Amino acid sequence: MTIVGKAGSAASKPNVDEARKRSRFSVLFEIFIVSLKLGLTSFGGPIAHLGYFRSEYVNRRRWMDDRSYADLVALCQFLPGPASSQVGIGIGTLRAGWLGGVAAWLGFTGPSVLALVWFAVLLQGTDAAQSGWIHGLKLVAVAIVAQAVIGMGQKLAAGRVRASIAFGAFAVVLLVESAYAQIALLLAAGLFGYWRLRHETEGDPAQLKLTISKRTGALFLVLFAALFTLLPIGRHFFAHPLLAMFEVFYRAGSLVFGSGHVVLPLLEREVVPAGWVGDADFLAGYGAVQAVPGPMFTFASYLGMTAYGVVGAVVATAAIFLPAFLLVWGALPFWNELRGKPRLQGVIAGVNAAVVGILGAALYDPIWTSAVTHRTDAAFAVVMFGLLQFWRMPPWAVVVLGIGCGALGIIGS
After folding, report:
1. What is the Cα Rg of the chain in Å?
2. Every domain of the chain and the residues it spans
3. By its UniProt entry, which Pfam families does this protein fall under (predicted)?
4. What whole-number distance in Å separates Cα of residue 268 and Cα of residue 366?
5. Confidence at residue 18, expressed as pLDDT on a 0 to 100 scale
6. Within a 10 A sphere around the Cβ of 379, how many other Cβ atoms?
């Protein structure tokens, strides 16, 4: 009987391990399916996404409480990158480790990526600059970015000091046409905020239950910094177009604060002069990304597909989202301590104010200067803005209206 008992115990161990594997797979699959539902239905930009997330993850599924969710949102607002995607990655990570973060990202981001790749395929072989419906998309982009500038300005550039940072950034970006000037501007705004806005704190933060060790988090942060430093060097010595693309999109994903709209000026000053994407195609894609759910950073998928096909789409998508993974995984173990530092809160306040100015400059150039060519265009853009801002029409509906008016010739190119 003893022998049988030992044999039975030995035989049961693989069954236990297999059950654990199945259980882990079921958790990951659940994360993916829930995130996929959000990826198919979450219209309206990052702020709206956070509302959808709270309804699903906190209210309905009880995966975390309100305090933990608020802390995670605060972390992702502090970090550069796509805030809503980072929150999703963080929730998946807290629930099932780093694979949970990947599963959450795949579900939330996948539908938007596929839709924009498909749009890029449709656009190939057409004369985008002369298409009426493309012109309609460009005018819709004017309205959407104007709404983003106003909304972000009210939140991130309130008060004399922050407004001054925003207006200063606006002027610098218009006068100095360089992506590197924008990087220097963000650094300067952060330093100014470190000095001038350090007293604007929000009280003691709550504590998050973390599953990543500080050592592992440090490794992710080191990898983030190493890639940020070495990719430009590698691009200089190895003149391969895909490496150049990876470096550009990784840098954009590493430096953008505030919302997906802010990635526009960084990418426009890189991909258009390089000849990867034309002006008309760039703005057409930016208009199309408003009509799909999910994160706006999937604009990179469209640009990569337009430039180098499927391989380009994969490279651009992976590059622009990789910093989000590395920063969330790296920062989670340290966030409880960092949030309480007033000077670091001042840094992010200064950077966010500068972001408003950068986006305002992008509203003028290239969006307004490329899309609005006569009074009819200006009138249509203002009407679209009113529908968004005051009638609360969803962005996808405004995009459809713009495409229809352009296609019917109601607005001319």
Report:
1. 23
2. 128-407
3. Chromate_transp
4. 8
5. 59
6. 13
- CB count, 10 Å around CB of 98? 17
304: three-class secondary structure by DSSP:
helix
Say which range, 65-69, 171-175, 376-380, 387-391, has the weakest mean pLDDT.
Answer: 65-69
List of long-range contacts for 381-387, beta carbons under 8 Å, 24+ apart: 381/139, 381/140, 381/142, 381/143, 381/146, 382/143, 384/139, 384/140, 384/142, 384/143, 384/144, 385/142, 385/143, 385/146, 385/147, 387/143
Residue with tokens 């780093």: 98
CA-angle at 18, arms to 16 and 23, nearest 5°: 95
Assigned token pair, 204: 């003691």
- Residue 291 burial by Cβ neighbours in a 10 Å radius (0-12, 13-18, 19+): buried
Residue type, 216: T
State the Cα–Cα distance between residues 364 and 386, nearest whole angstrom: 18
Other beta carbons within 10 Å of 317: 25
Lowest mean pLDDT among 135-139, 177-181, 269-273: 177-181
Q: How far apart are CA 264 and CA 274, in angstroms?
A: 15
Position 137: which residue type? L
Q: pTM above the 0.70 mark?
A: yes
Task: Please choose, from the candidates 190, 169, 343, 331, the residue with its C-alpha nearest in 3D space to the C-alpha of residue 262.
Answer: 169
pLDDT in tens, 33-91: 999 999 987 765 676 687 778 888 988 898 987 767 877 876 787 788 888 899 999 99
Report how far residue 260's alpha carbon sits from residue 178's, in angstroms, rounded to the nearest whole number: 19
Dist CA 249 CA 253 (whole Å) = 6
Span 96-120, pLDDT tens digits: 888 999 999 999 999 999 999 998 9
326-352 pLDDT tens trace = 999 999 988 767 766 777 778 878 888
Q: Which two tokens stand for residue 306?
A: 């337009």
